[in-house]
Amino acid sequence: MTKKINRRHVLTGAAAASAFGMASTLPTHFAIAGKAPIKIGILLPYSGTYAMLGNSITDAFRLRMVMAGDTMGGRPIEYSVIDSEMSVPKAPQNTNKLVTREKVDFIVGPVHSGIAQAMAKIIGRRTSPIMVVPNAGSNKVTGELCAPNIFRASFSNWQPAYPGGEVMANDGHQTAVTISWKYAAGIQMMDAGKSGFEKNGGTVLKQLYVPFPDVEFQALLSEIAALKPDAVFSFFSGGGAVKFVKDYAAAGLKQSIPLYGPGFLTEGVTEAQGEAAEGIKTTLHYSTELTNPTNVAFKAAYEKSTGRKANVFAVQGYDTASLLLQAAAVVGGDVEATDAVIHALENTSVPDSPRGPWKMSKAHNPIQDIYLRQVVGGRHKVLGVAAEALEDPATGCKLV
Ligand code: PHB
User: Fold this and answer.
1) Pick from 36, 150, 301, 339: most CB atoms within 10 A?
2) pLDDT of residue 6
3) Where are the domains of the chain?
C-alpha cells in the first residue's frame, strides 16, 4: 500500500499504516520544499507478540522528529515503513526492498535479534545505507557482524543480562534455572545471565526453552517446580512476557522461587501483568522512575502524544532519532556523504537521554549504566546501579 502525501510513505501492511498514521496529520513544510528529502526506511514489528515494542519505538521516534520540526539538517524526511511481522525468512527481502528499491539513506530497525543478524549480513557488506538498531540486542551485530555503517542505540543482549546474573548471586541464591524463547536473543541473554551468576558462585541447574513466539509454559513450569532452584532467570518480552509472568504466579511458583531477568520481562507490560509482576527484580538501561530532567520531560511528551506510558522501547526510538538528527546537523544535511555521517555517529555522545548519559563504543553500541529495578505498585522502582558505564565485550568485532 502506498500513500502519497507531502512526504511519501511506503506502508507495507495495514498495521504499519496505522502505526504511522499520525504522520499524515503533520503540517506541510513549504519553507523547505525544493530540497530533496532524506529517506528513512523503518523495519519494525506492528503485529504479533512484539507489536507494543514496534509501536513504542515508532511513536517516540516520530515524536523526536516532530520536536525537531520534522526536518534533518534542513531537509524534509520521507519514510518507508515495513511491518517486519517478526519474520526472519522475510528479513532479506524486506531489507533489500528498502535498500535497492526505496534507496533509503538510513534504516531504522529491527526489534528481533534474528532479523537484526539477517539485516546486518546484507547492510554490513555495503557502504550505505546506515543502519541504526533501535532495539534488537544480538551480540553479533556489534560483534562478529559489526560494520562501519551499523550502529545501535539500544543495548547488546549481554549488557542487561550479565549484571542480572550477578544480582541473583549477590542476593544469596545458589542455584537457578533459566527459561526463555529459543532464538538468538533468548539464548544470548540466558547465557550471559548464567555466566554472571556462575562467576559469582552460583550454579545453573538447567536451561529451559520454548520455541519463539510460543506461550505454552505449563510443562516447563512443572519441571521448574520439580527442580526446586533458589531462583529463576528469564527473558520474555511484549505479549509473551505478560503470559509468562501470569502463568508463573498462577502455577504457585512466585512465592517460593523468585523470578529475575533482563528488564524486558516487565517493561511496558506491568499493568497487564498486574499483581503477578509485583516484587520481580530486573536489570535494564532504563526505568520510568529515573528523575533526570530529560526523562521527566520525555515521559510527559510521550504520554501526551500517544496516550500511553513511556517504556524503554520508546526511549530507544527517541534516542535513535536524536542520533540521526545530530549526525545530519554535523554534515549540514549532506547525508549522502556517508563517511562524514559515520564519523559523526561514532563521535556522538547522548548527554541528555531519558536513560541518563551514554556514548557510542568503538563497536557502535551504547556504553551505559544498567539499573537494578523492582516492580513496586506497578512501577519500576530503582534500587541502584547494577553496572556503571557498562561496555559490551564486542567479541569478534574488527572495528575494536
Ligand atoms: C531481541 O530479539 O533482540 C529482543 C526482543 C525483545 C526485547 C529485547 C530484545 O525486549
Assistant:
1) 150
2) 30
3) 13-155+290-360, 158-284+371-390
Return the DSSP state at 223. Answer: H
Mutate-to-test residue for ligand 1 from 112, 145, 159, 234, highest number of ligand atoms within 8 A of CB: 112
How many CA within 13 A on the CB side of residue 271?
A: 5
Q: What is the pLDDT of residues 152-211, one digit of tens each?
A: 999 999 999 999 999 999 999 999 999 999 999 999 999 999 999 999 999 999 999 999
- What's 37's DSSP letter? P
Residue 246 confidence (pLDDT) above 90: yes
Q: Which three cell numbers stand for residue 27?
A: 503540517
In this structure, the residues whose C-beta lies within 6 A of any atom of ligand 1 are 53, 111-113, 135-138, 185, 237, 264
Ligand 1 atom nearest residue 267's Cα: 10
Cell of 141: 551485530
CATH architecture of 13-155+290-360: 3-Layer(aba) Sandwich (3.40)
Radius of gyration of the CA atoms of the chain, in A: 20
CA of 336 to the centre of ligand 1 (A): 31
Distance 7 CA to ligand 1 centre (A): 30
The whole-model pTM stands at: 0.94
Name the CATH architecture for the domain at 158-284+371-390: 3-Layer(aba) Sandwich (3.40)
13-155+290-360 and 158-284+371-390 share one CATH topology? Answer: yes
> Side-chain half-sphere of 84: how many Cα atoms within 13 Å?
31
SS3 75: strand
Q: Which three cell numbers stand for residue 337?
A: 556523504
